[in-house]
Design a protein that fits this description.
Layout lengths: L1 E4 L4 E6 L8 E6 L4 E5 L12 H4 L6 E3 L11 E7 L3 E9 L4 E10 L2 E7 L12 E9 L2 E9 L2
Length: 150
């Protein structure tokens, strides 16, 4: 049996058994619901996000590590979404002071990225040091650390 985790919502298990008449695909939601499908009966698979998932932001947001990190002039901040959303990323210094805000209106499903150019909200270059980026989607707040070296 091979197990593949495709997203935060699904776990797919493919079972190949030479003694069985056919192979099966087990689709198991992390909510506990599951279904088995005979492989030779599958022509295509289409996934739709249920309405209760759309209303629960913490089930569809993944914040990636920025790169490069440490960085010199600019760094890329990536995040994954399962539903389109308005995104706000706040950049804070090590004292907790807000340095800048990056905004992505109507971000698409899948991988998205924003670039921080090392400038504050007044377009002045910030000092070398530790900074934190915080993504805000609805009521969900995730943060990570980055290092600016000049």
């Amino acid at each position: 049996m091979k197990i593949f985790t495709i997203s935060l919502l699904y776990i797919f298990c493919f079972t190949s058994n030479s003694k069985a008449d056919s192979d099966t695909l087990l689709i198991k939601l992390k909510t506990g619901k599951s279904d088995k499908i005979v492989i030779d009966k599958i022509r295509s698979i289409k996934f739709e996000i249920a309405s209760d998932v759309k209303d629960s932001p913490n089930t569809f947001l993944v914040l990636k590590d920025n790169y490069p990190n440490p960085f010199n002039n600019e760094t890329t901040i990536e995040f994954d979404l399962l539903v389109p959303s308005d995104i706000k990323i706040n950049i804070f210094d090590s004292k907790g002071e807000l340095i800048n805000t990056l905004i992505c209106e109507s971000c698409k499903i899948g991988r998205n990225s924003l670039i921080w150019n090392g400038l504050n909200s007044k377009n002045n270059r910030v000092e070398s040091g530790t900074y934190f980026y915080e993504i805000n989607v609805g009521d969900v707040l995730l943060s990570k650390k980055m290092l600016l070296i000049k």
